[in-house]
Amino acid sequence: MTKPLNFLIAADFPPANYAGWHLLNTLVQRRSGLRLRLLMPGDLKEQRQMLETENIDIVYANPFDAAQLVRENGYIAFAKPASSSDEVVIAAKADATYNVVEDLPPGCQIALTSNGDVKLISLRLLEPADLSEDNIELVSVESYQGVARLLIKGEAQAGLFLAHAYHSMSKLAKSQLKIRVESMLHDISHVFLANPIYAQELAQLRSVLLDIGSQSSDSDVLDALGMPSGFVAMEQEDAEFMIDLMETLVN
């Protein structure tokens, strides 16, 4: 194959894992013989532009985007991180007077990114407090670091985080914040998807990806990714089940 495959990484990965994706891309290319062009958008807006304007062959997608890519664009799910689901954290400033989400008042300001699945799950977690989009003020920022800054400065009463991103923040940042609730869904995760026209390359890619972790040197790459357990296969029916679950949360 002369043309490299465009490999897009969802923009919501923690900055600490940036080098890990480059290490993974290099390792996969070396072991598979495939040529991969790594695309790492700086934010979700740039990600959407890439999906609309680039010919994306492989995607590491969040569950919200995966639903559209599978159902509307025919992408095939083939792997996901092992022992890693997409949980959500709702946090506040460490010294805030409210200790649980039920203490949050109507009209409160809640900071979030444009990550659709985090918002979707978080709104379900806010239901015990009788809070919804109708009686809260959502404050959009570009990154989870931006969400943390608003909380620390007292410019928002709560913030919505992808749990992996929250737990990857610096000790200093987390010392100024406190988790009010963390989801335990287990069945929702980021997934690797591929354009169906690359069936032959997909089998090779899946084999190499699932084998990462079998060599002692692989642990450095997986640790840099924040995925120490490596990857497991994901069948299309598993992806469909996850998408159905996402749609249930919407409704």
Walk me through the structure.
This protein is an alpha/beta fold and 251 residues long. The protein has two domains: 5-84 and 187-250, Periplasmic binding protein-like II (D-Maltodextrin-Binding Protein, domain 2, 3-Layer(aba) Sandwich); 88-182, Periplasmic binding protein-like II (D-Maltodextrin-Binding Protein, domain 2, 3-Layer(aba) Sandwich), CATH 3.40.190.10. Helix content is 39%, strand content 20%. The protein has ten helices and eleven strands. The chain has helices at 18-32, 44-53, 63-71, 116-125, 144-152, 163-167, 171-175, 199-211, 218-225, 236-250, and strands at residues 5-9, 36-39, 58-61, 76-81, 88-93, 109-112, 137-140, 158-162, 177-182, 191-194, 231-233. The protein has a six-stranded mixed sheet with strand order 2-1-3-10-4-11, with helices on both faces. Strands 7-6-8-5-9 form a five-stranded mixed sheet, sandwiched between helices. Strand 1 (5-9), helix 1 and strand 2 (36-39) form a beta-alpha-beta unit. It is globular, with a radius of gyration of 19 Å. The mean pLDDT is 89.
Short description:
This is Phosphonate transport system substrate-binding protein. By secondary structure, the protein is of the alpha/beta class.
Low-confidence stretches: none
Q: What is the approximate shape?
A: globular
Q: Give the spatial strand order of the biggest sheet.
A: 2-1-3-10-4-11
What is the CATH superfamily label of the largest domain? Periplasmic binding protein-like II
Structural class: alpha/beta
- Beta-strand proportion: 15-25%
| Total of helices | 10
Number of strands: 11
Gyration radius (Cα, Å) is: 19 Å
Instruction: Output the helix-strand order.
Output: EHEHEHEEEHEHEHHEEHHEH
Number of domains: 2
Helix content: 25-40%
Sketch the major β-sheet: 6 strands, mixed
Give the termini separation: 44 Å
**Arithmetic mean of pLDDT:** 89
Q: Could you please say which CATH topology of the largest domain applies here?
A: D-Maltodextrin-Binding Protein, domain 2
Kindly provide the name of the CATH class of the largest domain. Alpha Beta
**CATH architecture classification name of the largest domain:** 3-Layer(aba) Sandwich
